[in-house]
Write a structure and sequence with these properties.
By secondary structure, this protein is mainly α. The chain has a single domain, classed as ABC transporter involved in vitamin B12 uptake, BtuC. Helix content is 77%, strand content 2%. The chain is built from eleven helices and two strands. Strands 1-2 form a two-stranded antiparallel ribbon. Helix 2 packs parallel to helix 4, helix 2 crosses helix 8 and helix 9 runs parallel beside helix 11.
């Protein structure tokens, strides 16, 4: 049974890798504890589904979904920078508000996309879907790495490493915080928009627990390949997400109920934190 679950786990891992990369940008590069992914991930998926159902081209739907999710991330940054709201609390507030926005956009708890053209409706073969997801992950990695080694990318990383030093070097802290949260949540929205097209529907509860899954993947990846260099830091979420999904597949094959997977996820995060500390 575990062997049969490996391809599905790989597909889910490649999707989770995009979310984990989006989580990595604020958490690791900006040192900004951001939980907005709980809202930006479903917002991206639901926005994409609503546009596709309205007859828009899937690519246009994905772009709009990514932008909408990125704007929510900027909202979290503004709450923290402008109104001095705690970063975690700001993310929770925005995610809670987005739930109502998502429900208003759909007008009902879910939207089916089985009868509409999507990016993945060209094939039913899992292998081709995996190839598409691998290409998308590569397209994300290369520009992100290229940006982070530029002057602006170095400035963004400097804000996360030492904001006081960055400010003394005339680096605009607010501007780069907004940019970092936009990029991170845009990637979460991208993952949500791809997920609804693969599974064929969007659901109001699709983002619940996504942050804990992404953090588990990020920690696993960092413990396996490290994060001492920029390239390793960027690749870690992808490696960790694939391993994490295979661990969940193994748990299912050993007899765990799907309802037990959140317990498994929490245990993995705790285990990685304890391992990192000791």
């Amino acid at each position: 049974m575990f062997i049969e679950l490996i391809p599905i786990g790989l597909q889910q891992g490649l999707l989770l890798a995009i979310v984990a990369t989006g989580i990595m940008v604020p958490f690791r590069l900006l040192n900004f504890s951001d939980l907005t992914a709980e809202g930006s991930y479903p917002l991206g998926g639901i926005t994409c589904a609503v546009l596709i159902a309205a007859g828009f081209n899937p690519l246009i739907a994905v772009v709009v979904a990514c932008f909408a999710a990125g704007v929510i991330g900027m909202g979290t940054a503004i709450l923290h920078l402008r109104f001095k709201v705690n970063t975690l609390l700001a993310g929770i507030i925005l995610s809670t508000m987005v739930y109502s926005i998502n429900l208003r956009l759909m007008g009902k708890p879910n939207i089916a996309l089985f009868n509409f053209h999507t990016l993945f409706s060209i094939t039913e073969q899992l292998s081709l879907k995996l190839i598409i997801l691998i290409i998308i992950n590569i397209i994300i990695i290369i520009p992100l790495f290229g940006f982070l080694i530029t002057e602006k990318g170095l400035s963004l990383r400097a804000v996360g490493l030492n904001s006081l030093f960055a400010e003394r070097q005339a680096i605009n802290i607010k501007q780069y915080t907004l940019l970092g949260l936009f990029i991170g949540n845009m990637l979460c929205g991208l993952a949500g928009s791809l997920m609804v097209q693969i599974q064929g529907y969007a659901d109001i509860a699709m983002g619940i627990g996504i942050v804990i899954h992404a953090l588990a993947a990020l920690m696993i990846g960092e413990n396996f390949i490290g994060n001492k260099t920029l390239l390793r830091q960027i690749i870690a979420p992808i490696v960790g997400a694939i391993i994490y999904q295979q661990i969940q597949g193994l748990a299912l094959s050993l007899g765990c109920s799907p309802s037990d997977l959140k317990l498994v996820s929490g245990a993995i995060v705790l285990g990685m934190m304890v391992y990192s500390n000791y």
